[in-house]
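User: Predict the full complex structure for these chains.
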Amino acid sequence: MAELTTSRPLPVVKAPSSQEALPAHVRSHASGGRDLWTDPLPERPDDPDAALLELLHEVLDPELPISLVDLGLIYGARVEDDVAHIRLTFTATACPCMEFIREDIRDRLTREHWIDAVRIQEVWDPPWTRDMISERGRRRLRELGVGV
Amino acid sequence: MTETAEGLKAESTEVQTAFRRLVLGLADTKRLLGIRYSDWLLGAPSIEGGIATSSMAQDEWGHARLLYAALKDFGDDPVALEHQRDAADYASWDPLDHPLPDWAHLIAAVVIVDGALALALEGILEGGYEPLGGRIGKMLGEEEFHQALGKAWFQRLATGEGEGHAHLQEAVEAMLGPTVRCMAPGDDAHERLADRGLILPSSTLRHRLAKRLDPLLERVGASVPTEARLDNGWDPRRGRGTGHPEEEAVERARGDRNRALFVE
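Assistant: Here is the predicted structure of the two-chain assembly.
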């Protein structure tokens, strides 16, 4: 069989790797986005409830690179006697990531010295729908080509 | 009316036992239905059909888990219920005791068994038992997709005149009576709950199921029976026939093969 040759050098495409081309929140592969988590707050915040919600903004859904808050899974978050009380729902009754999500929430919140424990109450009412995704969440999903 | 777990505990033992039987029966049926759906992940007439059974199986297992968890209020250990019971203790509905032999049976199970399960859940929702009411809305939302798929396929098979039509007819004939009997038995336990307003009476459930399914069922010459027969092998303790699901399915339901890897 004749050897196939070419007199023309093959073009070299110089482009960022697919990973580099993606925003940081998309590149994060550590469970719950933990490689992007901020350092614990140095002091107890003046408004613990608001601070709690900010922390939950750092916890990403394991399957979609947007936060649990933006995905609309957090139905309530408050701090009482240094215990974080979270009302959490899931996108589906058999969400395969339930345990990861619970673990990521606990791990992120207990890094804070002003949170001693985390109590998660799972709720299904009102049922989660895609309408509960925040505008910021929708924007980020659109960046990835996910229509919502 | 809203009924709390505490309120139900103040009811008679008979009422509590009847309610536990109802919830366990629904949980076990959903668990078995998930297994029967999963049997068709590979082997459906189309790849889309197979993927649909995968999603529906996942939903059914999620619903089963929520229902098992609700039985904690009756003193049950949900982990033991899910992983440590013999086949003879399962309260799943009779039509799921054996694998569904063909796609027509699978579709009949979606429309009849899954449809009747959804109706039974609606009946509980109307009864106002709060610990379950908060979960049922989500379940029913997921069930809408099952019914959409089931009805589309049912019409498709029923419209044809070949083997598909005959298999569907056979499947409906085999499933309809036993399913209606489990959903709306009209026995003492069921009517006790209905009298208490916790669920709908059997006659109402059968009437509603007929209204929903008869337009489809008439395409294969069937209709929802107006009465349930309890004189031929009825187990009042489990609220189903006297048989039980075959061992292989229960081994899968319990997760026997991966018992060493439990994380619960």
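The radius of gyration of chain B is 18 Å.
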